Amino acid sequence: MNYFFPKDHFDAVLWALFLANLMSVTTAWAVDFGVTGDITPGIMRYTYQEDFKASDDVKWQDNVPFLGAGVGLTASSVNLSFLKSVDVLVDLSSQWADIGDDREFRDTLVGNTPAIADWNVDFKRQDYVLTLGATKTFGYVLAGASIGYKGSKAELNGTHRFHPLGSPARIYPEDSTTLKTNGMFGGITIAGVYKNFAMTLNLAYSWLNSEYDSKLNSIHEEGDNEGLTYGLKFRYKLPNYPVSLTLSGDYYSYETGFPIREKGTQLNSVKEKMIPLRFSITYRFK
Q1: 244 falls within a domain
Q2: From CA 176, how far away is CA 18, in angstroms rounded?
Q3: Structural domain total, the chain
C-alpha cells in the first residue's frame, strides 16, 4: 500500500484541481504563471505519547532539527466564476528529520511511580504535503483558503531503561515503533500586507487515517486521526530580486484513537504534538 498517496485521497486532490480549472473564466494567455522553489531548515519540539488502558503510558519528546523543500506553481490575477483577480497556488512540499542516536527522551513516571527513563533512540520522520490554495488581496489585507492532502511517517527505534526511584533499573528489549498517517485537510489564511512585508495567521484542520506498528508489543492497529494546526508567519520579499525570506512557527496537535481489545496490550490512543520553527528561502523562476 502507498501510505502517502492512497488512491481514494489522491483522486480527491485531482478532482479539486480539475474543478478549480473549470471555475476559471480566463484563458491561460491572460494569466501570469510562475514557478517557485524553496528550501526550509528548522527545528521542532516534538512530543510522542502512547496511552494504554491497563499498562504504563509512554511519552517521548525532544528538540528535533529538520530540513524541508518544496516546489510550487502560481497563477496571478486569475478570474474565477465567483471572484475576480485571485492568486492561485499548487504546492508540493516535504520535510525530513533524522537525529540518529539520541538520549534526550525522558519520562518522569512509570505508572504512578516517579522514575527516570534513559532512552537510546534513533528517530526519523518524513512529512509530505500537496496543497491547492487561492488568495485575494483587499487593500492591506489578504484572505485565502486551501485544501490538500498530507502524509507522514514517524519511526522510533532503540532501547530504553526505566529507573524507578528506590528500585533496580529495568532494561527492555530493542523496540521498533512506526506511526503512519495520510488524509485530507482544509485551511484558512488571513494576512496583513505592507509594501514588501506580510504577517500571516493560518488555521487548518486535518482528517487522517493512521497505522501503528510496535515490534516490542507485537501490535498493529488502524484508526482515525483528527488534528488542528495554527501558526504565524512573517514574510519579506527582497527588493529587485525574485527572492522571499520567511520565518514561521506552527503548533500541531494530533490524536489517533484505536479500538480496545479484550486480549493483549490495550492501546487507547497515540498522540503527536509538534511546535516547529522554520526559516524559508523562496525563489520565483520566470
Answers
A1: yes
A2: 41
A3: 1
Residue 173 has pLDDT above 70, yes or no: no
The three-point CA angle 162-166-170 to 5° equals 25
Predicted pLDDT of residue 226: 86
Cβ proximity of 123 and 104 under 8 Å: no
* Rounded to 5°, angle at Cα 68 from 128 and 118: 90
Residue-wise pLDDT tens digits, 107-126: 555 556 665 556 667 788 99
The band of 99, judged by pLDDT with boundaries at 50, 70 and 90, is: confident
Q: Give the CATH number of the domain where residue 86 resides.
A: 2.40.128.90
Give the contacts of 211 (CB within 8 A, at least 6 positions apart).
Answer: 3, 178, 179, 180, 181, 220, 221, 222
Residues 6+ apart with CB under 8 A from 76: 31, 32, 33, 34, 87
Shortest CA distance to 246 belongs to which of 279, 277, 285? 279
